[in-house]
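sorry to bug you again but im stuck and you know this stuff better than me. theres a chain ive been looking at and ive put its sequence and its fold in token form underneath. id like you to explain what the token line says about the fold, in plain words if possible. anything you notice is useful, everything is just below.
___
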Amino acid sequence: MNPQAPSVGQTKHAAPTTMQQAFTNAAINTLVSALQWGASTVGQATPLRRAIVRLYDRRIRAQYARAFASSPGPTAMLQHRLDMALAILHTMDRAMDQGLLGSATMRGVFNIVVREILLTGGDAATKQAFEARFGAIPPALLAISPGKACNLRCKGCYADSGPAHEKLAWPVFERIVREARQLWGLRFFILTGGEPLAYRDQGKTVLDMAEQNRDCFFMMYTNGTLIDDEVARRMGTVGNLTPAISVEGMREATDARRGAGVFDRVVAAMGRLRQAHVPFGISVTASRDNADQVLSDEVIDYFYGELGAMYGWLFHYMPIGRAITLEMMPTPKQRLAMMERMWEIIAQKHYFLADFWNSGILADGCISAGGRGGYLHIDWNGSVSPCVFVPYSPVNIHDVFAQGKDLNDVWAEPFFADLRAWQQAYNPGLGAPQPHPNGNLFMPCPFRDHHADFMAIYRRHEPQPTDENAEAALADPAYHQGMEEFDRELAALSDPLWQAHYLPPDAER
């Protein structure tokens, strides 16, 4: 692996005025200016737009050049942030150049994502009230799985979805979204499942939820097969919902996991979304079998270049859900190879691509359990867990509401608080006193990368498994032994890279 990979880990959490944060804010403001400019130039001549994009490209590079020059240590993290900023700029330029964004979507992207979330950070007064009460920033995201039903039955599904009709009642779904807005100032929601487009209650769907909350933005993880002409048209009209469509690579790999003919149905759905000017992305699960192919030029150029995907999320198979097996997990060597390839794609192709483990260096580590402006997950039964991939819940939202409590009480649950404390101890911010001896952000996940630590937290609180699969994993000694062996092997490979190319020279180890 080439260790000169790029991202910023030298920002202190407790000191937002450090050099890195100051320069990052300048770059963000430049980027936001570019994107806001783009909102008004969709119909202008391509040469003019490209000239202005080149101007902003140079400005962003110049800001980072000053940060590189004044950095006291390795600049790999700064390089990652530069590459990601440029990828966002050029992604938006491609989208406008290709006419992928309709007028309603432009309003949603720029009024909500850019202005409300990126530029102002959402409802500042609400966030300040939360911080004054709890001494921490509130979650910036909320993942909701409103229903378990799904029209497919994919191998290794983390949610074990299928024909079941377990779901949140519409009034509960509404209240969750409403309270997240009122108590946390939240404007960004993730819909997952089950298949979100299969959710129905009281005649309402996830599209109705997006329509009711036009000042929020929703991203939906979907298998894409239920996106017909009417669904695509309505998404284009609403303008504040983007689907991240699941694929495993090309036709053979996708159909092998998801069912015969699924790949062609997905490609057809993407065509409908393009016609309706709805921005969409891809969601790819990397396993031991396909880890060497999912980021190939063939796959990436097909979905981004030919089909018009604007973004991509890379998930590693997690040994939870249906038919749990450690044998599907990418090996530590494959994981690091995917990280190198991910940054190569971002830097060279300017595609927006994120990996929920290998991109931990951009988020300063794990953001589950509502930590660091992160997120919580609420499933179809009302179980609240720290993450969609950590199926253990200390509290149920139905009980919370029945007891006259709210989402703030959920966030304050001791199990979640203990996980947030682990996150802060693991990486308090490089340069902070006495950093954790193993604060390697190539290994951000407490459940997967530090399984022994997670189990110690679990035993202190004993949250409930959210399904029988999670319960079976708890009782399997071989499962825990295999997870810990994976962690040791990953640490042996990644610690030297982390120390050599990401830590400042005077970092205490």
DSSP finds 18 helices and twelve strands in the chain. The CA atoms of residues 97 and 217 lie 23 Å apart. The first strand starts at residue 142 and ends at 144. The mean pLDDT is 87.
